[in-house]
Amino acid sequence: MSMTNILQLLVSGFAMGAIYTLTAKGLFITHLATGKLNFGQGDFLMVGAFLMMGLLLSGLSPLLAVVAVLAAMALLGYLLERVAVRPLERSGDQTGGYAWVLTTAAIALILQNVVELIWGKSAQYSPPLFSSKRDSVIEVFGIGIFAEEAAIIALALVIVVAFYFFLFKTRWGKAVYAVAFNREAAALFGINVRGTIVLVFVVSALLAGVSGTLVGPLVSVNPYMGLVFTIKALAVASIGGFDNPLGILAGGLLFGIAEAFSNYWDSSFGDLYPLLAVLVLLAVKPAGLFGARAADVR
Amino acid sequence: MRTGFLAGVIVGLSIGSAQAEDAVKVGVVQSLNGPPAITDFGDSYLQGIKLALKDYQASGAKTKIELVVYDDEANPQRAVSVVQRLIQNDQSPVVIGTVASGNTLAFAPILQKAEIPLVAGPSIATNITAQFIDQKPSYIFRCSMVEKFQIDAILDWAAKTFEKVGLIHSTTGYGMASKTEIENGMKARGKALVGIEAVAPGVNDLTPQVIKMRDAGAELLLDFHESFELVYRPMARLNYHPRVAGNWGLSSLKVADIVGRDAIEGTVMGQALDLGSPRTKQFDERMRKEYGSEYRWPVVAALGYDAGQIVFKAVDKVGKSDPKAIRDAIESIDGVSAISATPARPFSPTDHECLDKQDVFLGVWKSGDVIRMN
Q1: Mutate to test the interface with A, among B237, B240, B257, B262 (most CBs of A within 10 A)
Q2: Containing domain of residue A206, as a range?
Q3: Which DSSP letter does residue A290 get?
Q4: Which of A121, A146, A218 to mutate against chain B (most B CBs within 10 Å)?
Q5: What is the pLDDT of residues B299-323, one digit of tens each?
Q6: Residue A67 domain-assigned (yes or no)
Q7: Between chain B's N and C termini, which has fewer beta carbons within 10 Å?
Q8: How much is the ipTM here?
Q9: CA of B61, closest CA in chain A: separation in Å?
Q10: Looking at the structure, do residues B11 and B141 belong to the same domain, yes or no?
Q11: 3-state per-residue secondary structure call for B148-159
Q12: pTM across the whole model
């Protein structure tokens, strides 16, 4: 296989991998702070994609549309925490500790049906972001990169760096880790635990929303696309080891590249092989490629 | 909104049927929700059937007919379950449908076994009628393009115009059936495909497949994937612009809008309706008046109209809900004044196709319109 083809597949792989990474980071941060995650993360991505498509089709400029979608997603994240996660804390041990799986999945189902009511069940095409036709291609080293793909990769890198900075260099980031370690102790230290938890869910929803706005022009959007993204994001978070943000980046890119190459070698079953590979990997190394086996000193 | 409307139509029709017990329930299964490429077919065919019903009712015929319409959502399991509902709950003596050949192939055996006639359409897989024609009698008819005739026309042209031909197909029933027919057709013409690539359902990015086609040097790309537009997408970034040919789905205005008028220029597909004839023009105007901008696919609507005509005429001849008699009436029907190229006597015990080989020709996109290719 020629170098050009390898590079071309790498680019496609990076772009989708970046989407998976961003989605998985959302799962990571809520799991870190609360031990729970949004089983409808992929559906949040779907809502972001549909909102973006709807706003673009109604003539809004891409920049304003992105801002509007992010605002909506932030609200959705807040509502998720308020409605599907916080009430369960009161019931505590009675619900067995995993009821959040059901409640977040239920929100996902509601979102799917609402989107279906508004836009119908059919698949739709999101307008391209950078030109009126689907041919804004950047030529680099003999391979063509869609402007949207370049944007995704660039943005994903920026967000990952910002995320890292946020988690390890700002007060809020440290608050997240404090709450993760021990909620009561964090509260005693004057950290706003409730605010931190709301924050992580909002950030998670924002990440899904950003992925959604970027992924629209690359794939066709339909109300049921969310589940596959949730599964792939979970797979990516698992490869990366749930606690390691850089690991998730590596995991996401690896998964995306594996997908692109697997489609090249066997187009009939392309999506199967990366997921099989993750299965095998987890059987061999359950903590993922980058998961740290840190002693739990609680 | 459309689902709600359809539910309302079904409820309204059921309430109506409680009073008119002698109305014959003609079952219709179409794909009205799903990928745009498929719903285009379903919507257009149904528009034709509904106009045919309107004309039938206006003609003062004595037998009351009611349409029971179900949406199979382009899903084979759902198609089978709505057909079973038509047989058991609605007691339909005749069924028309559906879009995806995989779905039609899934329920055709059920209808053959239940001895209920099916007029298949707009699905095009050749073996929909071919696999039942030897049964005595066969209950499966079709009023639509036939894939074999399209593929024959395309391959005849491809074999003499191009050295290197590649194929991208989906892994659905339709895609796999097309692949076999194309491979056999090329072999019969003494040529081989330079590349064959499959696409699994749910895969959105065909860059790997198109890279393979480009590397194989394919000058003509046969596009036999239901979502036709996916094949075009990677072409811009790979700077690879082969000629594209596929089935009649490529003549839809919706596909042209998604792909872009520039990208679709020169694409070739099978066609079966000549918009030049006065009768067709009249039909075209009536459809436009009836449906406005929703009407966007003359050839599919025309075939839906003809399927409707044939079924309603046969039901009227029989006068009641008798599937065996209706089947016989359909097979022996005569005097059909069709909009499409369907002849006045389309069927016989050995031919259950509305359209024959000579009625299919090739169309090509030129400056925003599909014209007959010469």
Answers
A1: B237
A2: 3-284
A3: S
A4: A121
A5: 899 999 999 999 999 999 999 899 9
A6: yes
A7: C
A8: 0.77
A9: 37
A10: yes
A11: HHHHHHHHHHHH
A12: 0.77
